[in-house]
């Protein structure tokens, strides 16, 4: 099964695709105007449970690192659920912890992540 993710920066939605069919979408927070999330096609390069040692830290309960050059970008949980749906991160894609915990086991390492302005 081929898995990929599509992130719409304008809609602030992340969609999981399996075999090119949309399976489920979740709301996300994206980069603030002065630290926007880079658009392009990337891959999941690592996956960490409880990054920072605690599910209650700034990165939440899960981290999936992205192959975006020039920085440490990822899809991760948050300890600030009110930020979801906003442009507030330093370029990362934030999700509610319950949502990334649902998504995390479904995304193999090296899965494609397509980030669009749309």
From TrEMBL:
Lineage top rank: taxon:
Bacteria
Q: In which pathway does it act?
A: Cell wall biogenesis; peptidoglycan biosynthesis
The family annotation for this protein states: Belongs to the YkuD family.
Protein's UniProt keywords contain Cell wall biogenesis/degradation: yes
Gene Ontology MF terms: glycosyltransferase activity; peptidoglycan L,D-transpeptidase activity
Q: Which InterPro entries match?
A: LD-transpeptidase, LD_TPept_cat_dom, Transpep_catalytic_dom
Pfam families per record: YkuD
The name under which this protein is listed is L,D-transpeptidase
Q: Where, by residue number, is the active site?
A: 76, 92
Keywords of the record, alphabetical order, are: Cell shape, Cell wall biogenesis/degradation, Glycosyltransferase, Hydrolase, Peptidoglycan synthesis, Transferase
The UniProt entry, under PANTHER family, shows: L,D-TRANSPEPTIDASE, L,D-TRANSPEPTIDASE ERFK_SRFK-RELATED
Example GO CC term: the record gives: extracellular region
Q: Which residues form the L,D-TPase catalytic domain?
A: 3-116
* Biological processes annotated in GO: cell wall organization; peptidoglycan-protein cross-linking; regulation of cell shape
As given in the record, the signal peptide range reads none
